[in-house]
Write a structure and sequence with these properties.
Layout: H1 10-21, H2 35-44, H3 57-80, H4 83-95, H5 100-108
Length: 125
């Protein structure tokens, strides 16, 4: 497992690992990176302090996990609230009288699936 699975970019992980290997030495040998920008990002993620000293790995991983858990929790909340849309859509469809095709086809077709008694729920008032 690498730190990208916990939310760091590959560049952020590269700089963090460099800082762990070489404490007190600025990462100047990392070609193609905007090191000051990456350091600012790592500081915002709280895996390096204001002096660009890396926090201990256990602390960094704990912070990254907590951040991911919070993000995932928010996403799950947003997804679970989508079920309200289903109720609203069914109510809208019912108000428009769109269930008539369902009722008419069910009256003519006997059930062979064992689900013949299923009926859409009446909208909540």
């Amino acid at each position: 497992m690498n730190l990208t699975s916990l939310g760091l970019t590959a560049d952020q992980e590269r700089v963090y690992r460099h800082l762990l290997r070489s404490p007190g030495r600025a990462p100047t040998d990392l070609d193609g990176l905007d090191v000051p920008a990456v350091l600012a990002e790592l500081h915002e993620l709280e895996v390096v302090d204001a002096t660009h000293t890396p926090v201990p790995p256990a602390v960094a991983v704990d912070r990254l996990i907590r951040r991911r858990v919070e993000e995932t929790s928010r996403e799950l909340h947003n997804l679970s609230s989508a079920w309200v849309v289903v109720r609203d859509l069914v109510e809208e469809q019912t108000r428009a009288g769109r269930w008539s095709w369902w009722n008419a086809s069910r009256a003519r077709t006997p059930s062979t699936t064992g689900c013949g008694s299923w009926r859409p729920r009446a909208p909540r008032r």
